Amino acid sequence: MSQKNPKYITTTLPYVNASPHIGHALEFVQADTLARFWRLQGEEVFFNLGVDEHGQKVAIKADEAGLARQDYVDKYATEFDELKKGLDLSNDSFVRTTSEAHKKAAQHIWNVCNEKGDIYKKKYKGLYCVGCEAFKVDTDLVEGKCQDHGVEPEEIEEENYFFKLSGYQSYLEEYLAIEGSVLPDWRRLEAIKFVQSGLEDLSISREISRMDWGVPVPGDDQHVMYVWFDALTNYISTLGWPEDTEGKFAKFWQEGKTLQLAGKDQIRFQSIIWQSMLKSAELKATDSIFYHGFINSDGKKMSKSLGNVIGPYELIERYGTDASRYLLLRHVHPTDDSDVTFDKLDEWYTANLVNGLGNLTSRIMKMAETHLDAPVETKNINTMDVDALNHFEFQQVMDGIWSGIGAMDEYIAENEPFKVIKTEPEEAKEMIEKLVKDLHEIAESLKVFMPATADTILEAIKKNTKPENLFTRLEK
């Protein structure tokens, strides 16, 4: 295994103010696919997931539920952690921001930034959106309301600690000028435009009298940290920073290649605030941050009030683990917004998995089991579009795989080995052997996308037997 170029990959940390939604599942599965791909390439990989458990949104929801804050976050953190099994995720860690190790790291980065002279205290009046956990300016609002949550921000006046974000404008312009620092590239240009429009210093604390659920500010028991300043530190606290007793931070962050995945609404936090915090603490910037789009349903943003929310556990229960991974990776665009409904999901599942890969595998392996005397000798050939996957084109790679599946179906239809076997058995056996080898290549290409399905097909080929149906037909 390579020690020269270790790779670190992390998703953002979802708030635990509600159950996981399909957007979380998309980001997790995208990250898992890349982690599996790099491991197959012989790279040493550290893959991080976790949850963001502090902040006003979480406190409000806990109070509404009549639960202690820690009990509330424990409940939802478990729902997210169990997606490791539900979506067959290969993450190496699951960081929680209520852990003592993380809180210690968050306080340490505060102290380091403070010693640098980047933290100061002042009175402030501003418009605060609880949903975003952020102060807003007029340009952030549409008709006086938050664009993301559709509510008027609350005017708040208090004394807070501030981070000198404005002092990092030149640095951020240099950082964002590096191609690949933000992906896709048009998101990088968005980030540059945002920075060039001017940066204001960032409020990074809340008075405990107004919001008491957070990491205490070092040396001031009347304030807790702003949830983002706390949560962003997870990307390095999960590696053991600052003590780094196991050397993971040095290996995977400082010396390795780092990649973060995030939703398109995260640019300000991940590529601007977090990178400024790292620079203030004299730590290496993130090498690349990949931003995906949103998933809507029937032309509308998913919301509980509309009843159009699709959760990952619903997907898993209806379609199974590998099929859910397939649907997210092939039928949700990697970077643009996508529209998903259960009608569409049912159609994709039935056409491409039940009647597609599943039926093809059954037909080929039934012919092999019946007509071949021994398992076909195969080679571990992977025809997957590696370059496309390195550029996060999950759809394009899977389209290529399914193009191969379609070509195999056409080959069977045109050559009819199941008929030829009656008159030209040796010729038919050659056809079947070719199909088994092609199926083996398909399975090798599916390892990072649908690992259990790939293993089932490869095991069937090894034993020369028809496997159980890979995908269950939906009940009407």
Provide a brief overview of the structure.
This protein has 476 residues and is of the alpha/beta class. Helix content is 48%, strand content 16%.
Structure notes:
It is a single chain. It contains 19 helices and 18 strands. The chain has 476 residues and is an alpha/beta fold. The chain folds into two domains: 286 residues, HUPs (Rossmann fold, 3-Layer(aba) Sandwich); 123 residues, Orthogonal Bundle (Isoleucyl-tRNA Synthetase, Domain 1), CATH 1.10.730.10. The protein has a six-stranded parallel beta sheet with strand order 3-2-1-14-15-9, sandwiched between helices. Strands 5-4-8-10 form a four-stranded antiparallel beta sheet. Strands 11-13-12 form a three-stranded antiparallel beta sheet. The longest helix has 30 residues.
Relative strand content: 15-25%
Average per-residue pLDDT, rounded, comes to 94
Helix fraction bin: 40-55%
Biggest sheet: strand arrangement: 3-2-1-14-15-9
CATH superfamily of the largest domain: HUPs
Terminus-to-terminus distance: 48 Å
Instruction: From the 3D structure, determine the CATH topology of the largest domain.
Output: Rossmann fold
Number of discrete helical segments: 19
Number of strands: 18
Q: Tell me the domain tally.
A: 2
List keywords for this structure.
alpha/beta; 476 residues; Rossmann fold; 18 strands; 16% strand; 2 domains
Q: Mind sketching the topology for me?
A:
Blueprint: E1 7-10, H1 22-40, E2 45-51, H2 56-65, H3 69-81, H4 83-86, E3 93-96, H5 100-115, E4 119-129, E5 134-136, E6 141-142, E7 145-146, E8 154-163, H6 169-176, E9 182-183, H7 185-196, E10 202-203, E11 205-207, E12 216-217, E13 220-225, H8 227-231, H9 234-237, H10 248-254, E14 257-263, H11 267-280, E15 288-292, E16 295-297, E17 300-301, H12 312-319, H13 321-331, E18 338-339, H14 342-371, H15 386-390, H16 394-415, H17 417-423, H18 425-446, H19 451-463
Parallel strand pairs: 1-2, 1-14, 2-3, 9-15, 14-15, 16-18
Antiparallel strand pairs: 4-5, 4-8, 6-7, 8-10, 11-13, 12-13, 16-17
